[in-house]
Amino acid sequence: MALSREQVIDTAVRLLDEVGLEALSLRRVARELGVSAPTLYWHVTDKRALLDHVAERLLADHWLATTPAAGQAWWEWLHERALAQYRALVGHRDAALVVAGNRPTPTSLPAVDAVVGTLVAGGFTAPEAFRAIIIVGNFVIGSAVEYHAERARPSPAPVEPDAGGPDPDAFPHLAAVLDAGHVAGPAGADHEALVAEGLDLLIGGLRARGVVPDPAQPGSPTEVAAAAATWSK
């Protein structure tokens, strides 16, 4: 049976989880498929092209809902999509590193255009919408990289019960942070909560920049010059 691009991508995704990005190569994929490396060039031109397809596969579910649900505001939709992307990236080994720097394949262009179009319908120009998507996406990818980096760190040595935190006289602000319990854990729910808060700040900034909801039409924003002043009060 002839080898298909889908088989190549499926094998690459499996190997990514098993051996990581550094050990993933066209030669390794070819060996797993029982073919010679040059055979893969019928389907992908080089490793970077393969990684673009892998990135698309890792985020396949993320691209399914490219428009808001009925009555859903664009900022809620953007937050929901960004958090779904984060969860997809932390669900696979080195996924964030694969997605970082990738370029859309022709297959994904309709979904990308639909995403931009959703923000254009919300009051953005097309260039503004594209920049907003890049900015939010970079934050999500960076957060996922941090998640995996923290998980890769060796477990810290046990802390003596009486060791306490930083000296409050020398580091009063850090001591106050620790006393309040506002330190996210290295991974898991605490880290996701921090990402969600960051998305609130980023997307809230986009709304404050000049697009606010029209009370008469939920989810349909209106350009107003007073938006920034409203947020500054």
Helical content, roughly? 55-70%
Number of strands: 2
Q: Whole-Å distance between the termini? A: 67 Å
Q: How many helices in DSSP terms? A: 10
User: How is the biggest beta sheet arranged?
Assistant: 2 strands, antiparallel
Runs with pLDDT <50, length 5+?
212-233
Instruction: From the alpha carbons, calculate the radius of gyration and give it in angstroms.
Output: 22 Å
As laid out across the biggest beta sheet, the strand order is 1-2
- Helix/strand structural class: mainly alpha
Number of domains: 2
Q: What is the CATH first-level class name of the largest domain?
A: Mainly Alpha
The CATH architecture classification of the largest domain is Orthogonal Bundle
Q: What is the typical, i.e. mean, pLDDT? A: 80
Tell me what portion of residues adopts beta-strand conformation.
under 5%
CATH homologous superfamily annotation of the largest domain: Tetracycline Repressor, domain 2
What is CATH's topology name of the largest domain? Tetracycline Repressor, domain 2
**SSE order in H/E notation?**
HHHHHHHHHEEH
